[in-house]
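Course assignment 3, question 2. Fill in each field.
Student: A.L.
Task: Predict the tertiary structure for the chain below.
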Amino acid sequence: MGRMDGFRIGVAIWSLGLTRDLHDLERQLSIVKEVGAEGVQLWCIDYGVAPCLLDPDRCGPECRRRVAELVESYGLEITGFCAQLSSPRRFGGFDDPDGLEDRIEKTVKALELAVEMGAPIVTMHPGRIPEDPRDPVYRLMRESISRVARHAEEIGAYFCIETGMEPVDVLRRFLEDLGSSAIKVNYDPANLLRYGVEEVLRGVEVLGPWIVHTHAKDYNPQTRSATVGEGLVPWREYLERLKSVGYRGWLVLEDETGRNVVESLRRGRAYLERLLETLSTP
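Answer field:
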């Protein structure tokens, strides 16, 4: 059951390894349920080293039906999908002309899959957005993402740029320049710690109108832990800022450290639950 304040806790499935087949998926969903989450964000792009069950070029109607039924059988909801791509030279790849047409096509297919499966959100880092709009890389990213946006608008999907590869003011100007109702933000507070703790909070206000999905992880510089509540992210103030800009959606736990991940997710979920209980009512 969702909370009265609207926040709900999910898990990013890639925290639990690769989803190569239905066996992997069932194992991962059982852990998500055991952790105590209500939702799961699914990965939907082939990995560099292995196939992904939900890659839209592989997962047809029957596969999609079976995945949806399996998620539902665990009493979970799909929060959205991640379609993280890269070019041979750059993470994200919307800033690299080499193979860009293929990445645009794959992203469009991922958006179509997300809509068909009832969770029309696809998140990714498309690449680092340059500060100068005259930069050729900026123009390339604007054109390529505009093409994705037009298709997303037509089918009712959201292409969500994840925070962290550029300062929030640069991302906001890019979003305003695009001017598309289908381009949104997946807000990850820990990714913004590189710009300072205050930027985590200020960024919510700067990007508030575009936030439709969030990741919940932390960063502890001593232990390198990503466990929520055990690092530098000021969670109480952050959640209050999210509420103040009208966000009442998913907080998707993510831990890519590979160290005691299940226990990390469990502790993070418990921390968020306790904290949410203490937040003032809207």
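Instructor remarks: The chain has a mean pLDDT of 96. The chain has eight helices and eight strands.
Grade: pending
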